[in-house]
Amino acid sequence: MIKAIRALSQEEWKNLWDIILEKNISNYFPYIDSTGYYTEIINKWNRVTVISCRKFYENIYSGLLFNEVAVTLESQLNNGSEILILNKDQFSEYSYIISFVNRTNNTRSFDSIQDLTKYLENKEVHEISSTILASYEGIKTLDFFDNYNLLLGNCGVITANSVEELSWVILKGIFSSLVVCDRELTNNENHIVLPYSKKQFNNPVKDTVIYNNESTLLESFERLVNKKRINSFYISTHGSEDCILLSDSIVCGQSKRFRGNGMDCKINEKCPIHKKGILAADIPADFVVNSTCFGYRPFNTILPSSVSLSNAFLENHASIYISSIGIKHGPDAEICLLHNLLLEGYTAGESVQILNNWLYQSNVDFPCYLVIGNPNQKYRVSNQKNLEETLELTKENDIYRMTIKQLKDKSFLKIKLDSCIEKFSYIENTSRINYYYSIVEEKGERYLYLYSWQNFNRERIEIIFHSTIPKLSFNNFQLSELEKKIVGNKYENETTELTNLISESASTIKEMKFDPNAFNKIRNLYKNINEKHQKLQEIIIEKLMKKSSSAYSIFLPELYIQQVQMLNHTVTEGVCFICDNKAKEYTFKNEATSEKRFLTYCPKCGCISDYSSMKKVKLEIIGRSDIPNLGIFKQTLVIKNISSENVKGLAFLTHLGLDEWSSVNKNIIEFELEPGKTEEHVFEFEIMKEIQPSIYYFKSMAITNSELYYANKPIFFYKEAFL
What we know:
The protein is of the alpha/beta class.
């Protein structure tokens, strides 16, 4: 049992090192406090005596002086944890200190990092928590990406550069675990930095401060670092192992004791921290959660530990550092879940285990969070009230509806899901409040977690369980390069808006795995996509109809053939079926659909015949090909689905000729056909007396799935009809 903890100067620390080497560490626990914060508290207390809970509460320990402050450690052994050490590592001989702090007698030793890794790989993920104790040098080859089990289990790493740094990490862990009669150690504030969050949490949970105004982050950080101590600090943004990037500043991992060169130092020569920035070491948080790329990178790093964020935080105030060991592009929901689990009383290791398993099972992002510190450590305080919520589950057609009551003053719920909704993995929010959800399988059972940065503040909420998400084939709404050319620059904004809507929809589909408000959002996006696409298709049809009435073109030769020639790799000679002139035959690939197509183009009469090797729609123009009389005559357009899937699109039938030649029927057909089905539409045309052509060209066009389909037909007139 540690009998006393007191502050030591560096000189005292050196003088007592011989005692340390003899493992007589129960009298003194040396450390270097670069913050000066804990030293001030310890010196104020004179001496801190650690006794068991039982003796403290039974008041049978009489060795305390009147002016001393007593603190307690749980005396009951923790059989659910283990210490893992490397035999040849310099920290291995101090494992008994970690064992004391963790209250466990279970220590496993390994001859190599490979043996330790193999043990973790074979361990069941829901078994006891594992604490790896090793120096930076000892674990620099420990690659957690080798096996998912290394990240899906309850695991943490206690590490440092030297024994004095290790002592400092352990001491902070002890202070965070003690029941202390000093308010300076029990500041409950939690500071959350979300520079790019689109959600607004106007009434956050008690003692929680949220920064999501991109333009004032530097000012917010300056206020933050002036605080003596806070409970936790969370940030979700861009960064690397040596810095966190803000919209108007940078959080630098530069050590206060050792100078090193980070990536920015090498690129810019001058450290940006001198201009405008914050040192990570100045953030006075006990728990630090950094959701950036490579927030912790013990292996394959090219940077010294003196500029690493993990070292900067742990060298100073933080006793727990949780971060990503890989690339991160996950949602804010990740750190929100972590915070609520810790508030609920889960340990750091348990919280990260639940988070990583959710990310892995739902495929939201790679499960790469790791605890640096004691994985058995908890928040000092909890803001949650232990009120039992009530649930009502009902089925309506293909959905389940759940009503949850007794939610006031809660920001977190864990609900065990019935087997009847085993295949229902998406939920929809029916109330106007912002929160997140996760569905996680644990030990064969499925659990629903609801959580937020703010209390629900409702007597009840209602959620809907879905087994699938609304689907929309985005390929049907992507404009091909040809269609973009037809629309032209005049409608570039509308085309860009459609592309952005499709892109936003794809992101929203991913959000549906954790954001219950995404269901309503995706419906609105789909509606806007349909409306925008319909408008553009109408523009395309209108332009095509105008183009088709030109006396110099039947099938857009100037426009369409340019596009084909750009895409073309094979050209052969053929014969035009209308004028018998030499025609060019192309084989090309439709870039919009990656489909092989065949095209014949006649440079004399302008006729284009375009068809697909996997053609979906067949167009036919039926009616008399010889017209003996003036006036009105009829032609029938037949549209047939010759594919194995449903097709829908727009079509029209018109004819070649200047506008004054005839009255043209410009009705547009909207069709939707099942496989093998056919539609017929009758069109009327009137030929004027003053026009005397001997041949008339009719064309039809259909647009579906960003593809153009054509049919054409010559119609002959008796010359005497125009006498």
